[in-house]
Amino acid sequence: MRLAFLSIGRHIHTERWIQWFAQKGHECHLLTVQPGHVEGVTVHDITSDGGPKPLRYLFSLRKVKKILKEIQPDLLNTHFLTGYGYWGHFSGFQPNVLTVWGDDVYVTPFENGLKMWLAQNALRSCRALTGDSADILEKCVELGAKPGQSYRVLWGVDFEKFQPFDAGHWRRELGFTDDEILYFSPRSYTQPYYNIDTVIAAAAKVAQQEPRARFLFAGYEGDPEPFRAKARQAGIEEVMAMVGRLPHDEFATALNACDVFISVPSVDATAVSLLEAMSCGAGIIISSLPSSMEWITQGESGIIVTPRSVDELAEAMLRFAKDEEFRRSAGEKALATARKYAGFDANMEFVEKIFRNALGEVESGPQNVSLEQLRLDEAGNT
Description:
Elements (H helix, E strand, L loop, with lengths): L1 E5 L5 H12 L3 E6 L9 E4 L7 H19 L3 E5 L4 H8 L4 E4 L3 H4 L6 H13 L2 E4 L2 H9 L7 E3 L15 H6 L7 E5 L10 H14 L3 E6 L6 H10 L5 E4 L4 H10 L2 E4 L8 H8 L3 E5 L2 H4 L9 E3 L4 H13 L1 H18 L2 H15 L12 H11 L1
Parallel strand pairs: 1-2, 1-4, 2-3, 4-5, 5-6, 6-7, 8-9, 8-11, 9-10, 11-12, 12-13
Helix pairs in contact: 2-3, 3-5, 8-9, 8-13, 11-14
């Protein structure tokens, strides 16, 4: 197949997704406003400089149409409903398979009437839709997507990298001892809805009651300094490390070095970092978002807390510290769930089947991850 992708450049999700197809021998083109080298992929810069934002969008759209006409791909896969999704829709190219990411569905369409109109048009016009949770697909259907062509596809985990292994050396290099309880919060420093301030406040309460408690913060984007100041004010600066972006391989090491993984946003799709932490057998604390609760069962494979509840989060952190057997068994159950559903290759094979169905080469997409089947599975579990 000759495939064109409209997506965020220089992003690990984009690169892993497209390179899977390139390594399968497909001709792959990436159209992006964040151009950069991607092995095995032809990258096209659609950036337009100068003028107000609406005019730049229009000029970029012209570039998109021109490049698609030159490439003549078999299929367009548009990633991210905001911006790229608009270009995909107004390009008029079909078949267009739309892949949504998270706040492009949960947040942006509700900011104003124009963004809602643009989102609805992009969702209605796509030939098929993929998203990484049943919840985000339901939100898309509410906005106009077709449920019969909506599929849950996870970003997926590389089980060769993300599996349980001894990472004590890495932990000790950061100054944490083997007998301490290390809590790891690896969310972006850019968005307030990731609730890093809540994690810091809960950590301060835990540190007062559990002398072994230690804390590691990592952010894949943004400035950690405002949060470092909050940690200093909370009195935990001496028992924590706060770093920036960790390389993907090192992130697997960090997950195995920690005892408990914390991800408690107010808004999110299925976080890849959650699936990766599950794949490493870590203790898991998540917020009560439908997209996260698809993967964690309360009190069995982890602990679920209300977003922005400092007290609930601190209580969950203390339970993992006090009950080593629960921490072990919950980690094992989370690992089993990840192994069953989260494999990268298995999920990308779903995408390939969705593409071939959009092209008329197969009669249907992967029905076991279709929204209609997920609804039946949920009804059977209630």
